[in-house]
Design brief:
- This protein has 333 residues and is α/β, with parallel strands linked by helices.
- The chain folds into two domains: 167 residues, Bordetella uptake gene, domain 1 (D-Maltodextrin-Binding Protein, domain 2, 3-Layer(aba) Sandwich); 99 residues, Periplasmic binding protein-like II (D-Maltodextrin-Binding Protein, domain 2, 3-Layer(aba) Sandwich).
- It starts with a helix and ends in a 5-residue tail after the last helix.
Amino acid sequence: MCVKRTNKSAAYRSLFALAFLLLLPALARAQESAADYPSRTIRIIVGFTPGGAPDITARIIADKLSELWKHPVIVENRPGAGGAVAARYVAESLADGYTLLSITNAHAVAPAINSDLPYDTLKDFAPVTMTSIAPNWVLASPSLNIHSLKELVALAKEKPNQLNFGSAGVGSFMHFAAAMFNDVVGIQAQHVPYKGPPEALADTVAGRVQYVVSPIGAALGLVRAGNLIPLAVTGKDRLREFPNVPTVAESGYPGFELLTWTGLLAPAHTPAALVVKLNAAVGETLKQSDVQAKFKAISVQPIATTPFDFGKRIADAVAEYTSAARKADITAK
């Protein structure tokens, strides 16, 4: 019995040694590829049509990375299913650092409303870094003739389920943002979904819906023109350009904060050395003054994080949106 165990142990040790020797060339190639990366075109996939924050921020970053690495970094739009088409494509791509995904909060919203996604939001991707962050704001139609969050809440409580709020579609981040806002301030209103932010904002201007919770950049021109009334900002601080617009917290709901963000992911199992190299390069581009100016022009703040911190933010967002979806009975349709 003892002799047999000894022979087996020796055999296992021999097999392990052989396997290790066979792996050495692969390990060497992995180290070499990290040192030489990139050696060809990198693609950043965006799950939305051109013009939104995940698209614009990705293009700004891609231009700078192309200059830095002397290899093309291109942005490719693959819209569909709220970003899920692009996410699946990247999840199934080679984990070699040459295919990345530019995401927004919608990436964390998707699993909260759809249990049948063709990928795992957390397990099938390697976080690289967050790239931008921005607050939202609560906007009212001029037809309501109100100018404060207190007035909106009072009116909504006086007329429960009689006010309408617009969004960019069922399960969109604008839908979640408004549902979470409604829950915090304790009001009930009817949801009116649209194809996208422009349509929702246009009907708010026209008075067909009474209020909306919108990204800053999407409604900036309408607010400047006086076509929409800003009642509150969902960040911790007031906006420099609109110092008279209070935060939701200042308006009587302390602790409330609701931010939109963008970031970059790679396929799961991308070598850590490549993720580190990507993280450092993107972080450096976000520090450049011209990049910061371009981000400011679309009302977002450039921000770089560690891969770990970005992964935690996504996981926390999935949990938060899942809870919000249950409370507001939001499901994919």
